[in-house]
Amino acid sequence: MRKLAIVILNWNGAEMLRRYLPTVLANSAVGDVIVADNASTDGSVDMLLREFPQVQVIVLEQNFGFAKGYDRALDELPDYEYYMLLNSDVEIRQKDWDVPLVRYMDEHSECAACQPKLLSLREAEIFEYAGAAGGFLDRYGYPFCRGRVMNTVEKDEGQYDEVVPLLWATGAALLVRASDWRESGGLDARFFAHMEEIDLCWRLRTMGRTIVCVSDSTAYHLGGATLSHGNPHKTFLNFRNNLLMLYKNLPQDELLKVMRVRRFLDYVAAFQFLLKGDVSNFMAVVKARSTFRRICRDFEADRQRIQQMRSLPHVPERTRFLLLWRYYAKGEKTFAELMK
Length: 340
Known about the structure:
The chain has 340 residues and is an alpha/beta fold.
């Protein structure tokens, strides 16, 4: 069995691959680098075959999105102990960056997944929004990170270098044990994109497995390469998928109360968009709520299966507070302030 497959999912990202793929190849000591192409139309596959003949290319017949794209690609890689899901806009500057990640997993059999410390490619001293030093959830499903709370992103000064249990690791650079990937069911293809890694990690934590950030490894993420912040389709996916994630993973004794509160908070968010004159994002939230109501019963079997797999009644990295209140009303802008 091979050790690690570093799998980069690509869709019309030929220029991203030209820029960042060489850094992954030059600095990876353990992993085999593989690109899975989501039916690109920009000549990505021809470019890879011509300019990177050492890279294995998996060609998918259509754009399956992030979640199903990875599910399909990893199905073709059964002989690896670990998978690394790596965004195409991640730059690697650290020699042998994958070694600390694999070493930690080898030494901690209870650990299902980990991530490197994720810093901004634009400002190398700043944590990157999409994952920073690992993620948590508040009671109502709002994610935050060690190093990034809402829109407040901290400078990395080593304050989050300690290895601690997380609820989720970033999908921009997610190393997962192949056996845990298969047992948990992998990413939920129906999410298409956004929140799918949090959903996966929550399932793993519910099963009693651990998630960590290994700060001895560092990666630099550009971010926003597919859908920019504020894009209505991104807003729709984030709101819809967050609701689906809650419906699937919440313990039974919390489900109704949490979903009622979220309905209220989602419409507050929608009307905030409307007050700013942003009709497109207002409609995106309304559409997300409507779509969730229409399809949530399709996820009932998944919910029952997750509850049956549950070994932790309540995942401790899902906090009991409302993040919005603590951030906006109490002015607690950093992870350390929230968790003191």
